[in-house]
Write a structure and sequence with these properties.
single chain
């Protein structure tokens, strides 16, 4: 693999990470809106649906945050490669 190919590959990977970060950010925003909606609309349901749904959406938020952290680390690693 030539140096030019490696540089192009690194640039492609960075674009992919940027796109994924954009998607995660949008999904997090929607997820927070969903948590607020569930809290507002189902608050105090007799069967606890609101609490179960909120707990699940919160777990999704945590998972998205971990994914975003991993993508940031990958992006930083690619930035170090680009400096070489």
């Amino acid at each position: 693999m030539s140096l030019g190919q490696v540089i192009a590959l690194v640039a492609d990977l960075q674009r992919s990470i940027d796109q994924q970060m954009t998607q995660i950010t949008e999904f997090q925003r929607n997820n927070r809106d969903n948590i607020a909606l569930v809290t507002q609309e189902l608050q105090g349901s007799r069967r606890g649906h609101d609490k179960r749904m909120t707990a699940q959406l919160t777990r999704v938020e945590d998972s998205l945050s971990r994914s975003a952290t991993s993508l940031r680390q990958a992006s930083q690693a690619l930035a170090r490669i680009q400096l070489v």
